[in-house]
Amino acid sequence: MTVEPVLIANEWRPSQSSSTFQAENPATKQPLEPVYPVSSWADLDAALAAADAAATALRQTSGEQIARFLDLYAGKIESQTEPLVAMAHAETALPAKPRLAEVELPRTTGQLREAARAARSGSWRLPTIDTKLTIRSCHAPLGPIWVFGPNNFPFAFNSIAGGDFAAAIATGNPVIAKANTSHPGTTRLFAIAAHEAAIAAGLSVGSIQLIYRTSHADGARAVADPRTGATAYTGSRAAGLELKAVADRAGKPIYLELSSVNPVVFLPGAVKSRGEQLAGEFTASCLMGTGQFCTNPGLVILLAGPETDSFVAAVADRFRAAPVGTLLSKGVAQSLEASLNTLISAGAKLLAGGTPGGGNGYCVANTLLKIGGSQFLANPGLYQTEAFGNATLAVISENAAQAARIIDSLEGNLTGCVYSDTHGSDDALYDDLAGRLRHKVGRLLNDKMPTGVAVSPAMNHGGPYPATGHPGFTAVGIPAALRRFTALECYDNVRPHRLPAALQNKNPTGTMWRLIDGNWTQGDVPS
Protein backbone atom coordinates (compact mmCIF):
# COMPACT_ATOMS: atom_id res chain seq x y z
CA MET A 1 0.00 0.00 0.00
CA THR A 2 1.43 3.34 -1.08
CA VAL A 3 0.91 6.23 1.34
CA GLU A 4 1.30 9.72 -0.08
CA PRO A 5 4.06 11.85 1.49
CA VAL A 6 3.54 15.16 3.27
CA LEU A 7 5.29 18.37 2.22
CA ILE A 8 7.49 19.67 5.04
CA ALA A 9 10.50 22.00 4.78
CA ASN A 10 10.53 21.88 0.96
CA GLU A 11 10.69 18.09 1.01
CA TRP A 12 8.09 15.49 0.14
CA ARG A 13 8.69 13.06 2.98
CA PRO A 14 6.89 10.08 4.56
CA SER A 15 4.62 11.01 7.43
CA GLN A 16 5.86 10.04 10.88
CA SER A 17 2.44 8.51 11.56
CA SER A 18 1.17 5.07 10.55
CA SER A 19 -2.51 6.08 10.54
CA THR A 20 -4.11 6.53 7.11
CA PHE A 21 -7.35 7.42 5.34
CA GLN A 22 -8.84 7.43 1.85
CA ALA A 23 -11.13 9.84 0.08
CA GLU A 24 -14.42 8.63 -1.40
CA ASN A 25 -16.19 9.32 -4.65
CA PRO A 26 -19.52 10.65 -3.29
CA ALA A 27 -21.37 9.75 -6.50
CA THR A 28 -20.41 6.07 -6.27
CA LYS A 29 -19.66 5.78 -2.53
CA GLN A 30 -16.45 3.96 -3.46
CA PRO A 31 -13.02 4.66 -1.91
CA LEU A 32 -10.44 6.36 -4.09
CA GLU A 33 -6.78 5.58 -4.42
CA PRO A 34 -4.24 6.44 -3.12
CA VAL A 35 -3.96 6.39 0.67
CA TYR A 36 -3.09 9.50 2.70
CA PRO A 37 -1.50 9.84 6.15
CA VAL A 38 -3.19 11.10 9.30
CA SER A 39 -0.29 13.15 10.63
CA SER A 40 0.77 12.91 14.26
CA TRP A 41 2.16 15.80 16.30
CA ALA A 42 5.64 14.92 15.04
CA ASP A 43 4.69 16.06 11.52
CA LEU A 44 2.99 19.21 12.79
CA ASP A 45 5.93 20.06 15.03
CA ALA A 46 8.37 19.67 12.14
CA ALA A 47 6.19 21.86 9.91
CA LEU A 48 5.97 24.55 12.58
CA ALA A 49 9.74 24.52 13.06
CA ALA A 50 10.30 25.00 9.34
CA ALA A 51 7.60 27.68 9.08
CA ASP A 52 9.02 29.53 12.09
CA ALA A 53 12.40 29.70 10.39
CA ALA A 54 10.79 30.73 7.10
CA ALA A 55 8.87 33.55 8.80
CA THR A 56 12.09 35.40 9.59
CA ALA A 57 13.32 35.09 6.01
CA LEU A 58 9.96 36.10 4.52
CA ARG A 59 9.94 39.35 6.50
CA GLN A 60 12.98 40.33 4.44
CA THR A 61 11.52 39.06 1.15
CA SER A 62 10.31 41.75 -1.23
CA GLY A 63 6.71 42.03 -2.29
CA GLU A 64 7.92 41.64 -5.86
CA GLN A 65 9.42 38.22 -5.10
CA ILE A 66 6.26 37.03 -3.38
CA ALA A 67 4.20 38.36 -6.29
CA ARG A 68 6.42 36.43 -8.68
CA PHE A 69 5.64 33.24 -6.78
CA LEU A 70 1.89 33.91 -6.92
CA ASP A 71 1.98 34.62 -10.65
CA LEU A 72 4.10 31.53 -11.35
CA TYR A 73 1.76 29.43 -9.26
CA ALA A 74 -1.33 30.69 -11.10
CA GLY A 75 0.29 29.77 -14.39
CA LYS A 76 1.21 26.28 -13.21
CA ILE A 77 -2.37 25.71 -12.04
CA GLU A 78 -3.68 26.65 -15.48
CA SER A 79 -1.24 24.23 -17.10
CA GLN A 80 -2.67 21.47 -14.88
CA THR A 81 -6.35 22.28 -15.45
CA GLU A 82 -7.28 18.86 -16.82
CA PRO A 83 -5.85 16.69 -13.99
CA LEU A 84 -7.05 19.13 -11.33
CA VAL A 85 -10.62 19.15 -12.67
CA ALA A 86 -10.66 15.37 -13.05
CA MET A 87 -9.42 14.82 -9.51
CA ALA A 88 -11.78 17.34 -7.94
CA HIS A 89 -14.73 15.91 -9.86
CA ALA A 90 -13.91 12.40 -8.62
CA GLU A 91 -13.48 13.53 -5.01
CA THR A 92 -16.48 15.90 -4.74
CA ALA A 93 -18.88 14.96 -7.57
CA LEU A 94 -19.08 18.67 -8.44
CA PRO A 95 -19.65 19.13 -12.19
CA ALA A 96 -16.44 19.31 -14.20
CA LYS A 97 -18.10 21.91 -16.44
CA PRO A 98 -19.01 24.59 -15.94
CA ARG A 99 -18.51 24.60 -12.15
CA LEU A 100 -14.92 23.40 -11.75
CA ALA A 101 -13.21 24.15 -15.06
CA GLU A 102 -14.98 27.34 -16.11
CA VAL A 103 -16.01 29.00 -12.84
CA GLU A 104 -14.01 27.90 -9.83
CA LEU A 105 -10.58 27.35 -11.38
CA PRO A 106 -10.44 30.79 -13.12
CA ARG A 107 -11.61 32.35 -9.86
CA THR A 108 -8.76 30.63 -8.05
CA THR A 109 -6.05 31.82 -10.42
CA GLY A 110 -7.66 35.25 -10.49
CA GLN A 111 -7.42 35.50 -6.69
CA LEU A 112 -3.77 34.50 -6.78
CA ARG A 113 -2.97 37.15 -9.37
CA GLU A 114 -4.94 39.78 -7.48
CA ALA A 115 -2.94 38.90 -4.37
CA ALA A 116 0.22 39.24 -6.46
CA ARG A 117 -0.77 42.79 -7.45
CA ALA A 118 -1.39 43.64 -3.81
CA ALA A 119 1.99 42.22 -2.81
CA ARG A 120 3.75 44.31 -5.48
CA SER A 121 2.03 47.53 -4.46
CA GLY A 122 2.35 47.05 -0.71
CA SER A 123 -0.59 49.38 -0.01
CA TRP A 124 -2.12 46.64 2.19
CA ARG A 125 0.43 47.67 4.82
CA LEU A 126 -1.39 51.02 5.38
CA PRO A 127 1.89 52.86 6.06
CA THR A 128 1.22 55.88 8.25
CA ILE A 129 3.87 58.54 8.76
CA ASP A 130 3.87 61.46 11.20
CA THR A 131 6.95 63.53 10.37
CA LYS A 132 6.42 66.05 13.18
CA LEU A 133 6.45 63.46 15.97
CA THR A 134 8.74 61.04 14.04
CA ILE A 135 6.29 58.19 14.57
CA ARG A 136 5.64 55.72 11.76
CA SER A 137 3.55 52.54 11.59
CA CYS A 138 2.50 49.85 9.14
CA HIS A 139 1.06 46.36 8.97
CA ALA A 140 3.54 43.48 8.88
CA PRO A 141 3.44 39.65 8.73
CA LEU A 142 2.31 37.67 11.78
CA GLY A 143 4.26 34.44 11.26
CA PRO A 144 3.22 30.85 10.43
CA ILE A 145 -0.43 30.61 9.33
CA TRP A 146 -2.50 27.43 9.54
CA VAL A 147 -5.15 27.19 6.82
CA PHE A 148 -7.97 24.66 7.26
CA GLY A 149 -9.88 24.50 3.97
CA PRO A 150 -13.57 23.56 3.52
CA ASN A 151 -15.09 20.65 1.61
CA ASN A 152 -17.37 22.62 -0.70
CA PHE A 153 -14.87 24.66 -2.73
CA PRO A 154 -11.97 22.37 -3.68
CA PHE A 155 -10.32 25.14 -5.72
CA ALA A 156 -11.34 28.66 -4.66
CA PHE A 157 -11.09 27.99 -0.90
CA ASN A 158 -8.50 25.22 -1.01
CA SER A 159 -6.09 25.35 1.90
CA ILE A 160 -3.07 25.66 -0.41
CA ALA A 161 -4.58 27.57 -3.33
CA GLY A 162 -7.63 29.53 -2.17
CA GLY A 163 -8.30 32.97 -0.79
CA ASP A 164 -6.94 32.40 2.72
CA PHE A 165 -3.74 30.92 1.32
CA ALA A 166 -3.28 33.79 -1.15
CA ALA A 167 -3.90 36.42 1.54
CA ALA A 168 -1.49 34.85 4.02
CA ILE A 169 1.32 34.43 1.48
CA ALA A 170 0.84 37.87 -0.07
CA THR A 171 1.45 39.46 3.32
CA GLY A 172 4.69 37.56 3.79
CA ASN A 173 3.58 34.71 6.05
CA PRO A 174 4.53 31.05 5.66
CA VAL A 175 1.50 28.77 5.28
CA ILE A 176 0.93 25.29 6.65
CA ALA A 177 -2.06 23.94 4.76
CA LYS A 178 -4.31 21.27 6.27
CA ALA A 179 -6.10 19.61 3.38
CA ASN A 180 -9.80 18.91 3.64
CA THR A 181 -10.22 15.15 3.90
CA SER A 182 -12.91 15.24 1.21
CA HIS A 183 -10.41 16.21 -1.49
CA PRO A 184 -6.82 15.33 -0.49
CA GLY A 185 -5.80 14.39 -4.02
CA THR A 186 -6.86 17.77 -5.38
CA THR A 187 -4.92 19.51 -2.64
CA ARG A 188 -1.84 17.37 -3.33
CA LEU A 189 -1.88 18.43 -7.00
CA PHE A 190 -2.07 22.07 -5.94
CA ALA A 191 0.77 21.54 -3.48
CA ILE A 192 3.01 20.07 -6.19
CA ALA A 193 2.46 23.16 -8.33
CA ALA A 194 2.92 25.51 -5.36
CA HIS A 195 6.14 23.77 -4.34
CA GLU A 196 7.57 24.08 -7.84
CA ALA A 197 6.59 27.75 -8.06
CA ALA A 198 8.08 28.50 -4.64
CA ILE A 199 11.41 26.98 -5.64
CA ALA A 200 11.42 28.86 -8.93
CA ALA A 201 10.65 32.14 -7.15
CA GLY A 202 13.31 31.51 -4.51
CA LEU A 203 11.03 31.52 -1.49
CA SER A 204 12.66 30.34 1.72
CA VAL A 205 12.44 26.73 2.86
CA GLY A 206 9.23 26.12 4.80
CA SER A 207 7.24 28.91 3.19
CA ILE A 208 4.60 26.45 1.91
CA GLN A 209 3.83 23.10 3.55
CA LEU A 210 1.06 20.50 3.46
CA ILE A 211 -0.41 17.88 5.73
CA TYR A 212 -3.60 16.02 4.89
CA ARG A 213 -5.27 15.21 8.17
CA THR A 214 -4.59 15.18 11.89
CA SER A 215 -6.41 14.44 15.12
CA HIS A 216 -8.64 17.08 16.72
CA ALA A 217 -6.30 17.17 19.70
CA ASP A 218 -3.21 17.81 17.57
CA GLY A 219 -5.06 20.37 15.47
CA ALA A 220 -6.01 22.25 18.63
CA ARG A 221 -2.44 22.04 19.88
CA ALA A 222 -1.19 23.47 16.58
CA VAL A 223 -3.41 26.57 16.56
CA ALA A 224 -2.29 27.41 20.10
CA ASP A 225 1.41 26.73 19.58
CA PRO A 226 3.65 29.72 20.43
CA ARG A 227 5.13 29.60 16.92
CA THR A 228 1.71 29.97 15.24
CA GLY A 229 0.87 33.45 14.00
CA ALA A 230 -2.80 32.87 13.18
CA THR A 231 -5.27 30.32 11.84
CA ALA A 232 -7.90 30.46 9.10
CA TYR A 233 -10.65 27.85 9.40
CA THR A 234 -13.70 27.18 7.24
CA GLY A 235 -15.98 24.33 8.28
CA SER A 236 -18.46 23.14 10.88
CA ARG A 237 -19.47 25.33 13.79
CA ALA A 238 -18.71 22.66 16.39
CA ALA A 239 -15.15 21.97 15.24
CA GLY A 240 -14.45 25.65 14.60
CA LEU A 241 -15.55 26.68 18.07
CA GLU A 242 -13.35 24.01 19.64
CA LEU A 243 -10.36 25.47 17.82
CA LYS A 244 -11.40 29.02 18.71
CA ALA A 245 -11.60 28.21 22.41
CA VAL A 246 -8.08 26.84 22.38
CA ALA A 247 -6.70 29.69 20.25
CA ASP A 248 -8.39 32.31 22.44
CA ARG A 249 -6.86 30.85 25.59
CA ALA A 250 -3.45 31.04 23.93
CA GLY A 251 -4.07 34.57 22.64
CA LYS A 252 -3.74 33.47 19.02
CA PRO A 253 -5.85 35.05 16.24
CA ILE A 254 -8.21 32.66 14.48
CA TYR A 255 -10.49 33.59 11.60
CA LEU A 256 -13.55 31.39 11.25
CA GLU A 257 -16.29 30.81 8.73
CA LEU A 258 -18.82 28.61 10.51
CA SER A 259 -22.53 28.71 9.87
CA SER A 260 -25.07 30.81 8.01
CA VAL A 261 -28.70 30.37 6.94
CA ASN A 262 -28.57 33.55 4.79
CA PRO A 263 -32.15 34.83 5.20
CA VAL A 264 -34.08 36.01 2.14
CA VAL A 265 -37.04 38.31 2.77
CA PHE A 266 -39.73 38.56 0.09
CA LEU A 267 -41.95 41.60 0.62
CA PRO A 268 -45.62 41.43 -0.46
CA GLY A 269 -45.33 43.74 -3.46
CA ALA A 270 -42.47 41.71 -4.92
CA VAL A 271 -44.36 38.44 -4.50
CA LYS A 272 -47.53 39.90 -5.99
CA SER A 273 -45.85 41.54 -9.00
CA ARG A 274 -43.34 38.86 -10.00
CA GLY A 275 -43.90 35.82 -7.80
CA GLU A 276 -43.47 33.23 -10.56
CA GLN A 277 -40.14 34.73 -11.64
CA LEU A 278 -38.88 34.92 -8.07
CA ALA A 279 -39.90 31.33 -7.38
CA GLY A 280 -37.60 30.28 -10.20
CA GLU A 281 -34.72 32.48 -9.04
CA PHE A 282 -35.07 31.31 -5.47
CA THR A 283 -35.19 27.62 -6.39
CA ALA A 284 -32.09 27.96 -8.57
CA SER A 285 -30.20 29.66 -5.77
CA CYS A 286 -31.29 27.12 -3.15
CA LEU A 287 -30.35 24.08 -5.24
CA MET A 288 -27.20 25.41 -6.90
CA GLY A 289 -24.33 23.06 -6.06
CA THR A 290 -26.86 20.87 -4.22
CA GLY A 291 -27.20 23.73 -1.74
CA GLN A 292 -23.62 23.33 -0.56
CA PHE A 293 -22.67 26.99 -0.66
CA CYS A 294 -21.89 28.93 2.51
CA THR A 295 -24.19 31.62 1.08
CA ASN A 296 -27.02 29.22 0.24
CA PRO A 297 -30.44 30.68 1.25
CA GLY A 298 -31.54 28.31 4.00
CA LEU A 299 -34.26 30.57 5.44
CA VAL A 300 -36.93 32.58 3.64
CA ILE A 301 -39.26 35.04 5.38
CA LEU A 302 -42.63 35.98 3.84
CA LEU A 303 -45.80 37.73 4.97
CA ALA A 304 -48.96 35.62 5.02
CA GLY A 305 -51.45 36.03 2.19
CA PRO A 306 -52.82 34.27 -0.90
CA GLU A 307 -49.89 35.42 -3.09
CA THR A 308 -47.47 33.98 -0.53
CA ASP A 309 -49.37 30.68 -0.51
CA SER A 310 -49.07 30.52 -4.30
CA PHE A 311 -45.38 31.43 -4.17
CA VAL A 312 -44.52 28.74 -1.61
CA ALA A 313 -46.51 26.15 -3.57
CA ALA A 314 -44.64 27.12 -6.76
CA VAL A 315 -41.29 26.73 -5.00
CA ALA A 316 -42.34 23.33 -3.65
CA ASP A 317 -43.30 22.20 -7.15
CA ARG A 318 -39.94 23.30 -8.47
CA PHE A 319 -38.08 21.53 -5.65
CA ARG A 320 -39.90 18.29 -6.44
CA ALA A 321 -39.27 18.61 -10.19
CA ALA A 322 -35.59 19.57 -10.01
CA PRO A 323 -32.87 16.90 -10.27
CA VAL A 324 -31.42 15.76 -6.94
CA GLY A 325 -27.71 16.51 -6.77
CA THR A 326 -24.96 14.53 -5.08
CA LEU A 327 -23.75 15.73 -1.70
CA LEU A 328 -20.05 16.12 -1.02
CA SER A 329 -19.66 13.20 1.35
CA LYS A 330 -21.35 10.68 3.59
CA GLY A 331 -20.81 13.05 6.49
CA VAL A 332 -22.60 15.90 4.71
CA ALA A 333 -25.54 13.63 3.93
CA GLN A 334 -25.78 12.43 7.52
CA SER A 335 -25.55 15.97 8.86
CA LEU A 336 -28.28 17.18 6.50
CA GLU A 337 -30.58 14.33 7.49
CA ALA A 338 -29.97 15.07 11.18
CA SER A 339 -30.75 18.77 10.71
CA LEU A 340 -33.96 18.00 8.81
CA ASN A 341 -35.04 15.58 11.53
CA THR A 342 -34.42 18.30 14.11
CA LEU A 343 -36.57 20.81 12.24
CA ILE A 344 -39.36 18.35 11.49
CA SER A 345 -39.42 17.08 15.07
CA ALA A 346 -39.72 20.70 16.22
CA GLY A 347 -42.87 21.14 14.15
CA ALA A 348 -41.75 22.31 10.72
CA LYS A 349 -44.13 21.10 8.02
CA LEU A 350 -42.62 19.14 5.15
CA LEU A 351 -43.69 20.51 1.75
CA ALA A 352 -41.21 18.67 -0.48
CA GLY A 353 -38.46 16.09 -0.09
CA GLY A 354 -37.19 15.22 3.36
CA THR A 355 -36.05 11.69 2.55
CA PRO A 356 -32.67 10.20 1.61
CA GLY A 357 -32.05 9.29 -2.02
CA GLY A 358 -33.46 10.49 -5.29
CA GLY A 359 -30.12 10.97 -7.02
CA ASN A 360 -26.69 9.42 -7.32
CA GLY A 361 -24.51 8.44 -4.38
CA TYR A 362 -24.85 10.42 -1.19
CA CYS A 363 -28.02 12.47 -1.63
CA VAL A 364 -31.21 13.73 -0.01
CA ALA A 365 -34.33 14.80 -1.90
CA ASN A 366 -34.68 18.54 -2.46
CA THR A 367 -36.42 19.66 0.72
CA LEU A 368 -38.71 22.60 1.49
CA LEU A 369 -40.11 23.09 5.00
CA LYS A 370 -42.58 25.64 6.35
CA ILE A 371 -43.34 27.09 9.75
CA GLY A 372 -45.49 29.91 11.12
CA GLY A 373 -43.98 33.10 12.48
CA SER A 374 -45.29 32.62 16.04
CA GLN A 375 -43.85 29.13 16.22
CA PHE A 376 -40.51 30.37 14.92
CA LEU A 377 -40.38 33.10 17.56
CA ALA A 378 -41.07 30.56 20.28
CA ASN A 379 -37.66 28.97 19.65
CA PRO A 380 -35.70 30.96 17.02
CA GLY A 381 -32.37 29.32 17.80
CA LEU A 382 -33.73 25.85 17.08
CA TYR A 383 -35.36 26.89 13.80
CA GLN A 384 -32.08 28.42 12.62
CA THR A 385 -30.42 25.01 12.68
CA GLU A 386 -28.28 25.01 9.55
CA ALA A 387 -29.34 22.32 7.08
CA PHE A 388 -26.24 22.40 4.89
CA GLY A 389 -27.38 21.13 1.53
CA ASN A 390 -30.44 21.25 -0.70
CA ALA A 391 -32.97 22.29 1.96
CA THR A 392 -34.72 25.53 2.94
CA LEU A 393 -37.16 26.60 5.67
CA ALA A 394 -39.95 29.08 4.83
CA VAL A 395 -41.17 31.21 7.75
CA ILE A 396 -44.62 32.70 7.19
CA SER A 397 -45.10 35.86 9.25
CA GLU A 398 -48.59 36.95 10.25
CA ASN A 399 -47.87 40.65 9.67
CA ALA A 400 -45.10 43.22 9.24
CA ALA A 401 -44.61 43.70 12.98
CA GLN A 402 -44.03 39.97 13.44
CA ALA A 403 -41.64 39.91 10.49
CA ALA A 404 -39.62 42.61 12.25
CA ARG A 405 -39.45 40.49 15.42
CA ILE A 406 -38.37 37.46 13.38
CA ILE A 407 -35.51 39.43 11.84
CA ASP A 408 -34.54 40.80 15.25
CA SER A 409 -34.27 37.22 16.53
CA LEU A 410 -31.87 36.08 13.81
CA GLU A 411 -28.29 35.06 14.51
CA GLY A 412 -25.43 36.59 12.57
CA ASN A 413 -25.18 35.58 8.91
CA LEU A 414 -22.91 36.03 5.94
CA THR A 415 -25.69 37.47 3.77
CA GLY A 416 -29.25 38.73 3.91
CA CYS A 417 -31.52 39.68 1.00
CA VAL A 418 -34.66 41.75 0.69
CA TYR A 419 -36.83 41.58 -2.45
CA SER A 420 -39.24 44.49 -2.88
CA ASP A 421 -41.73 45.86 -5.39
CA THR A 422 -39.93 47.78 -8.13
CA HIS A 423 -42.79 50.32 -8.24
CA GLY A 424 -42.39 51.41 -4.62
CA SER A 425 -45.29 49.77 -2.79
CA ASP A 426 -42.87 48.04 -0.38
CA ASP A 427 -40.59 51.01 0.28
CA ALA A 428 -41.70 51.85 3.82
CA LEU A 429 -41.61 48.21 4.86
CA TYR A 430 -38.24 47.78 3.18
CA ASP A 431 -36.75 50.69 5.15
CA ASP A 432 -37.79 49.09 8.43
CA LEU A 433 -36.93 45.45 7.74
CA ALA A 434 -33.72 46.06 5.80
CA GLY A 435 -32.51 48.36 8.56
CA ARG A 436 -33.01 45.56 11.08
CA LEU A 437 -31.42 42.95 8.80
CA ARG A 438 -28.40 45.19 8.17
CA HIS A 439 -27.09 44.50 11.69
CA LYS A 440 -27.45 40.75 11.28
CA VAL A 441 -25.42 40.19 8.11
CA GLY A 442 -22.04 40.93 6.60
CA ARG A 443 -23.45 41.56 3.10
CA LEU A 444 -26.91 42.99 2.44
CA LEU A 445 -28.45 42.37 -0.99
CA ASN A 446 -31.50 43.90 -2.63
CA ASP A 447 -33.36 42.02 -5.39
CA LYS A 448 -30.46 39.63 -5.88
CA MET A 449 -29.82 36.10 -4.67
CA PRO A 450 -26.85 35.65 -2.31
CA THR A 451 -25.21 32.56 -3.76
CA GLY A 452 -22.41 34.21 -5.72
CA VAL A 453 -19.47 35.86 -3.97
CA ALA A 454 -17.68 38.22 -6.35
CA VAL A 455 -13.93 38.68 -5.99
CA SER A 456 -14.00 42.43 -5.49
CA PRO A 457 -12.08 44.83 -3.22
CA ALA A 458 -15.48 45.95 -1.89
CA MET A 459 -16.70 42.44 -1.02
CA ASN A 460 -17.38 41.40 2.57
CA HIS A 461 -17.49 37.64 2.93
CA GLY A 462 -17.89 37.71 6.67
CA GLY A 463 -20.43 38.74 9.25
CA PRO A 464 -21.50 38.58 12.89
CA TYR A 465 -21.22 35.38 14.90
CA PRO A 466 -21.89 32.55 14.16
CA ALA A 467 -21.29 33.29 10.48
CA THR A 468 -17.71 34.10 11.44
CA GLY A 469 -15.68 34.52 14.60
CA HIS A 470 -15.22 38.28 14.17
CA PRO A 471 -17.48 40.78 12.34
CA GLY A 472 -14.64 43.07 11.29
CA PHE A 473 -12.92 40.82 8.75
CA THR A 474 -13.61 39.32 5.35
CA ALA A 475 -12.32 36.15 3.69
CA VAL A 476 -12.84 37.61 0.19
CA GLY A 477 -11.81 41.06 -1.03
CA ILE A 478 -8.28 42.34 -1.38
CA PRO A 479 -6.71 44.22 0.37
CA ALA A 480 -9.05 43.84 3.37
CA ALA A 481 -8.72 40.04 3.44
CA LEU A 482 -4.93 40.33 3.65
CA ARG A 483 -4.91 42.32 6.89
CA ARG A 484 -6.28 39.37 8.90
CA PHE A 485 -2.78 37.92 8.81
CA THR A 486 -0.89 41.03 9.91
CA ALA A 487 0.19 42.89 13.03
CA LEU A 488 0.30 46.67 13.33
CA GLU A 489 3.88 47.66 14.07
CA CYS A 490 4.89 51.14 15.26
CA TYR A 491 8.31 52.82 15.10
CA ASP A 492 8.91 55.83 17.36
CA ASN A 493 12.01 57.99 16.70
CA VAL A 494 13.72 55.10 14.88
CA ARG A 495 16.59 56.18 12.66
CA PRO A 496 15.53 56.38 9.00
CA HIS A 497 17.88 53.67 7.69
CA ARG A 498 16.55 51.25 10.32
CA LEU A 499 12.93 51.59 9.26
CA PRO A 500 11.20 48.98 7.09
CA ALA A 501 11.15 49.94 3.43
CA ALA A 502 7.45 50.82 3.56
CA LEU A 503 8.15 53.55 6.14
CA GLN A 504 11.30 55.07 4.72
CA ASN A 505 11.18 58.47 3.08
CA LYS A 506 11.28 57.05 -0.43
CA ASN A 507 8.24 55.14 -1.59
CA PRO A 508 9.71 51.65 -2.17
CA THR A 509 7.33 50.61 -4.96
CA GLY A 510 6.18 53.91 -6.39
CA THR A 511 2.59 52.65 -6.26
CA MET A 512 2.20 52.12 -2.50
CA TRP A 513 -0.39 54.40 -0.96
CA ARG A 514 0.85 55.92 2.32
CA LEU A 515 -0.76 58.31 4.80
CA ILE A 516 1.84 61.04 5.28
CA ASP A 517 0.95 63.78 7.73
CA GLY A 518 -2.75 63.16 7.12
CA ASN A 519 -2.64 63.00 3.32
CA TRP A 520 -2.84 59.83 1.21
CA THR A 521 -0.10 59.87 -1.41
CA GLN A 522 2.04 57.65 -3.59
CA GLY A 523 4.88 60.14 -3.36
CA ASP A 524 7.95 60.25 -1.18
CA VAL A 525 8.09 61.92 2.24
CA PRO A 526 8.83 65.61 1.58
CA SER A 527 12.35 66.59 2.55
Can you describe this structure?
With 527 residues, the protein is α/β, with parallel strands linked by helices. The chain has helices at 41-59, 63-79, 81-92, 96-121, 163-170, 184-201, 216-224, 237-250, 268-287, 306-321, 330-345, 373-378, 380-383, 400-408, 427-438, and strands at residues 6-8, 11-13, 20-21, 24-25, 30-31, 36-37, 128-130, 135-141, 145-148, 175-178, 208-211, 230-234, 254-257, 264-266, 299-303, 349-352, 367-372, 391-397, 413-419, 441-446, 486-492, 514-516, 519-521. It contains 15 helices and 23 strands. The chain has a 7-stranded mixed sheet with strand order 16-17-18-15-14-19-20, sandwiched between helices. A 5-stranded mixed sheet has the order 21-8-7-22-23, with no helix packed on it. Helix 6 links the parallel strand 10 (175-178) and strand 11 (208-211). The chain starts with 5 loop residues before the first strand and ends in a 6-residue tail after the last strand.
